[in-house]
UniProtKB/TrEMBL annotation:
Sulphur oxidation protein SoxZ domain residues: 8-103
NCBIfam families linked to this entry: SoxZ_true
Superkingdom per UniProt: Bacteria
Gene3D superfamilies: Immunoglobulins
Protein name according to UniProt: Thiosulfate oxidation carrier complex protein SoxZ
Amino acid sequence: MPDPTKIRATANGDVVEVKMLMSHPESTGLTTDAAGKLKLATTPHYIKTVTVACNDRTVMTGDWGPAVSKNPFLTLRFKGGKPGDKITVTWNDSAGESRTDEATVG
């Protein structure tokens, strides 16, 4: 199982900024052979869906593909949050793995 998602959430008035660093290999499965030609070396392994919720209310859903970099970093802002609210980040990947992590708005 991948390492936990690092989450930092801060409130400025009613606007919450959430920054997260997800631990994930984000592999397209492609590599090059000795001649420099592309070939499929492994099964692609990348995050497909990311959902962020504040107190069980979805504030963002994103569909990703294999072009996202290894260990992706995501920042978002939304209105309607306050210090003490629970932020939940969930992702699902192409290999059927998923992870959910939580943080509290500071």
